[in-house]
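Quick one, T. Sequence first:
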Amino acid sequence: MRLGAPLDPETQSMISLKSFAPSFPWVPCLVLCCVAAAPGQGCVSGVNTALTFDGVDDWARIPDNVALDGFGDFTIEFWCHPASNLNQGLVSKFRHASPSNDDDAYSFRVYPPGVLRVQFASGTVASGTYDGTATLSDGAWHHVAVTRSGDAVSAFVDGALDIAFTFAGPLNATDTPLALAALLDATDSPLRPLAGHLDEVRIWNQHRTQSQVQQDMHQGLSGSEAGLVAYWRLDDGVGQTFLDATPTGADGALGASVSAGADDPSWSFAFPAPIVYCGAIGGGQGNTPEATLLVNGLGVGSAPGPFVVGVGAGSPSVLSWRGIPGAPIVLIAGPFSGGFPIPGVGSLDVGTPPTFSDMIVLFNGFTLPGNLIFLLDPSGAFDLTVTAPSFPSGTTIGYIQGVVGLPGFPSPALRPTAAFRVDIL
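Structure tokens:
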């Protein structure tokens, strides 16, 4: 991502962290790898996990439910992290080895050289297989969304269009179970098991636009959204079952049954998809029209923060500030104390754990004061990519926030952006 230009020494001397300290109540927070909830959307709280599959016999099974197929318009989406470019199942309600097509509905898989392959069936007619060009097996999480409006099918990878084709007729309403991380044969036994991870599987009985996909791909949902008929967060973290967060109640099982077996995937706390987990502590700063902080392309409304986000260890995130073109911004961080975080003023160590120097490492080795002071570009934007540390689950990394100077800076027009606390989940 593009970094903003550091301020020149003269400007830096005009705008110091010490000069900011008494200007307003500080609400810095540590931001890493996830998205703050958009206004009106439900925040998800709790643990953040994914399912990890061994590529040998692991899979997950969701019994047939009338809500899971038979669609006209629909959207099916999920996060995947394949470890191989071989032919492997991702999400499938499709008996691939059956002699007929009327027990098939939809199939999404990884296919050599590591791209998305899509196939549908309506009545006795199965579509051809349609392959994308975006690589899924490159060692990173990828979001997949396949959506249909009328006969027009679009498949998006990480929010970008990857496949487009037409297919007529409603998808079959079958008695086939839904398989995660595998394809199915004629007896509903798994084929082509996935080596890798899956997370956040969602099924909608309506078409969702590209902008809607992009808006919600990093956002945890409440489960009550209109048109959302099944939603497996895969955040259960323990046990042999995983819950559907919608009223449909289409709960699933690890492996072929609710009994423990060699075909069970494992719960991963260290490697979940980049989904936002948030809540507001309250009493802090929200975004304003003049100064806004976004995380992974989404932002918070005017509600008071700091906002809590849970992230996966080692995950990247993009912090994006928006404000007055050419205005200076300062990145600040510190511990939370007495209702507000305390900025690091004149010291690299503002409390343990963690130390402020620990936080600086998160920002690619930048150091105070000058290298955390930047200018918004001519369009009023500045983006910074950061990476969450590989800390144990349950660690609160700290707090971070930005301060934007408005015309007339350095005094008195300063605006703090919304603040965030970041936890490793």
